[in-house]
Specification:
This protein has 129 residues and is mainly alpha-helical. The chain is 67% helix and 3% strand. The C terminus is likely disordered.
């Protein structure tokens, strides 16, 4: 009888340890998701950011912020790497800020106007800006 009690106690401790481990895994997973979401939320959306938000990025002053805004008025950014097509922003500056920017839903919301403005973007990329 004494042996049965000891065996049951060991089983209960093992079950408690398994539950604690499962809870720990769930908490860590939730924290990891929260960090990713917070990081994404802190990024500057190239399609919707104000000049003030853009100038908060390293290497972006008022003139480059205005150039970004003018560029997106032709058609929204489809991807962040398109930023190198903006006058004054080269690959080196893009590498510094690529993890701080994102392209939000404005790209899909303006798809109709983007289709008509596509020709204007091609002219702008060829040096007309």
């Amino acid at each position: 009888m004494e042996r049965a009690k000891g065996s049951r106690a060991v089983g209960e401790r093992f079950a408690r340890a398994v539950r604690c481990a499962a809870v720990a895994v769930l908490v860590l997973a939730a924290v990891g998701v929260g960090v990713a979401s917070a990081e994404e939320a802190s990024r500057v959306d190239l399609n919707t950011a104000s000049a003030a938000e853009l100038t908060a990025l390293p290497g972006i002053g008022p003139a480059k912020a205005q150039a970004i805004i003018e560029y997106r008025e032709t058609a929204p950014f489809k991807s962040a790497d398109e930023l190198v097509q903006v006058k004054g922003i080269g690959q080196k500056l893009y590498e510094q800020i690529k993890d701080k920017v994102t392209v939000g839903s404005a790209a899909s919301g303006a798809a109709g106007s983007a289709a008509g403005a596509k020709g204007g973007r091609a002219v702008a990329a060829s040096g007309a800006r």
